[in-house]
């Protein structure tokens, strides 16, 4: 049968990324407490396309994914990227895996157990010079913050908001998702829980009130801790506060490359 994708294209425009997006796929992730955790990921797979070819072979991406069924993990990212380049005759390959990750948490007073969901991602790229050029882990952590200004000027209480903190990390050695989440939650006014009884609600409300933080404080606190970790070589930290008394969000972002320091 005629291979349309291999036909010549005369516009002389290379494509940086071409491939498939949002493939829903079951994966297994390392779990610090239980060994492994089964979850369902959204997978993006891309390669570059030289200007001389009309198109890429989309089905080959899914074939590669199926080959590594049950073993799509950090340790296999380099193998998957290399196979993407080889099977699709590409110089560069990119793989993005985003998934929900669940941690069982105890309420601070009653010890009621519940599952908290965190959105995580593994992202890797490989170019023509290196088998495994780049890899980072990302985690989205929901927290709560109390406004220092509101606390200072109000006769009664202070306004608070739920915030979403996103941390992306490049590192030398393996790092647990749980450790990243714990670090972020330590830097909040208070962390979140799925279940809170009245004694727990009293505790977290008062804890947050005692530790008011601007969005700037959150990213600076997290960045300060990451900067001291010798295992971390690059990071980004961003926080978005969904304001409770404004019709907009407050936002802050920090990026640091520690490799040159």
Report on this model:
The chain is an alpha+beta fold and 261 residues long. The chain has helices spanning 58-67, 77-87, 148-153, 177-186, 198-210, 215-228; strands spanning 15-31, 35-49, 93-106, 113-126, 134-146, 160-171, 190-191, 232-242, 249-257. A hairpin with a 3-residue loop joins strand 1 (15-31) and strand 2 (35-49). It folds into two domains: 1-97, Urate Oxidase; 133-261, Urate Oxidase, CATH 3.10.270.10. The chain contains six helices and nine strands; from the N terminus they run E-E-H-H-E-E-E-H-E-H-E-H-H-E-E. Strands 1, 2, 3, 4, 5, 6, 7, 8 and 9 form a nine-stranded antiparallel sheet that branches. The protein is elongated and about 75 Å long.
Low-confidence stretches: none
- Count of the domains: 2
Percentage of residues in helical conformation: 10-25%
**Using DSSP, what is the number of strands?**
9
Largest sheet entry: 9 strands, antiparallel
Q: What fraction of residues sit in β-strands? A: 35-45%
**Please, what is the CATH homologous superfamily of the largest domain?**
Urate Oxidase
The CATH architecture of the largest domain can be given as Roll
What oligomeric state do these chains adopt? single chain
Radius of gyration: 22 Å
Describe the global form.
Answer: elongated
Mean pLDDT metric: 91
Order of helices and strands: EEHHEEEHEHEHHEE
